[in-house]
Specification:
The protein is α+β, with helices and mostly antiparallel strands and 342 residues long. The protein has 3 domains: 4-99, Rossmann fold (3-Layer(aba) Sandwich), CATH 3.40.50; 128-191, Dna Ligase, domain 1; 195-325, 2-Layer Sandwich (D-amino Acid Aminotransferase, Chain A, domain 1), CATH 3.30.470.20. Helix content is 30%, strand content 20%. The strands form 3 sheets. Strands 9, 10, 11, 12, 13 and 14 form a 6-stranded antiparallel beta sheet that branches. It has a 4-stranded parallel beta sheet with strand order 2-1-3-4, with helices on both faces. The chain is globular.
């Protein structure tokens, strides 16, 4: 049975740069090509697709939304720390089912400091952190160097550059001053975890299932040391290795902590958890993304290849998970996975 599926999204070309904007201001938005392949993937499952665009466009098309069965949401929103909540909240008000986390989940997870507090409350390992609202606070941060400084409420490696890793209070003050001025928000400062980095995609709900663990390779290295994924690596210098060449024990630990994180913030249908592993083999959750990139150059395509399936099949597994959750479909196809989360 085919469904009438809406597609909400933001594309890079719609962003109008303002004076003073950093070059990565539209980094979270998708390329038009990505929207096209997602639409084609949904159609390959026998569904009709209606493009709805971003949150502002959605407001002008409310009459079209009411005739849809479900909306596949990948919209990042327009501005502010609640931007990823905009489309989900509009759809909730219209009582239209949608794919992915609700407004609360999207808002909590875009704010990295709120996420950190939830992880700590749930006893999920995460690097020690501090919030810096004024660069002068950098001199009294009670953390162990080296540290890494990030914007509090951004994704897609926005605000992350080589100078984000700091080894002295002077460097921290300079970097946090730049972040606060450039992104108009406080800085998140964390103790930097030297070692390896992984990301775990998750699909489904009852139960959610971890997909093959993906390892981040930067500049040809798997043991990253003090290397980390920065904005300049989006186009070159970083690769995904899937499945990660790790032993079964570490794989199981990464899957377990990823699933624990997914549940802690009420992720549904799909998500991705980024994890750093230190020299002693201890995992630390960096962040969870309930609205991860579905680009064919990103993690979910790597997962599809590792499982011997197709990108189209993965997109329809995500859609099926949402259809079942909303009671629109009796049963999803069995999920292919390298693990069981029972």
């Amino acid at each position: 049975m085919g469904y009438r599926v809406g597609l909400t999204y933001n594309v890079k070309s719609e962003y109008v740069f303002k004076p003073g904007d950093p070059p990565d201001a539209n980094a979270e938005f998708d390329h038009e090509d990505t929207i096209g392949v997602i639409e084609a993937a949904i159609r390959s499952g026998g569904h009709e697709v209606t493009r709805l665009g971003n949150a502002r466009t959605l407001l002008t098309q409310l009459h079209r939304v009411k005739h849809l069965d479900i909306v596949f949401n990948i919209a990042e929103g327009d501005e502010g720390r609640n931007r990823e909540s905009q489309v989900p909240i509009l759809l909730e008000m219209l009582r239209v089912p949608f794919v992915g986390g609700d407004g609360l989940t999207q808002g909590m997870t875009l704010d990295k400091i709120v996420t950190k507090k939830i992880l700590i409350a749930e006893n999920i390992p995460t690097p020690r952190f501090a919030e810096v609202r004024n660069p002068e606070e950098a001199w009294t941060v009670p953390l162990r160097y080296p540290l890494i400084a990030k914007p509090r409420c951004e994704g897609s490696s926005k605000g992350m550059r080589k100078s984000s890793l700091v080894t002295t209070p002077q460097e921290l003050a300079r970097q946090t001053a730049w972040l606060i001025e450039t992104y108009q928000q406080p800085a998140l400062v964390e103790e930097f975890i030297e070692g390896q980095e992984f990301t775990v995609a998750i699909i489904g709900n009852q139960p959610p299932e971890a997909q093959p663990v993906v390892q981040i390779q930067i500049e040809g290295k798997l043991d990253l040391g003090r290397l980390f994924y920065a904005f300049e690596h989006i186009h070159s210098g970083a690769d995904y290795v899937c499945p990660a060449a790790i032993d079964a024990e570490l794989r199981q630990r990464l899957e377990a902590v990823a699933l624990q994180t997914y549940r802690a913030v009420d992720c549904v249908d799909f998500g991705r958890v980024d994890i750093r592993v230190d020299r002693q083999g201890e995992p630390y959750v960096l962040e969870i993304n309930p609205l991860p990139s579905l680009s064919t150059e990103d993690v979910f395509m790597c997962v599809a290849k590792a499982q011997g399936t197709t990108y189209e099949a993965v997109i329809n597994r995500i859609l099926d998970a949402a259809l079942v959750r909303h009671g629109l479909k009796a049963n999803a196809e069995p999920l292919l996975s390298a693990t069981s989360s029972h």
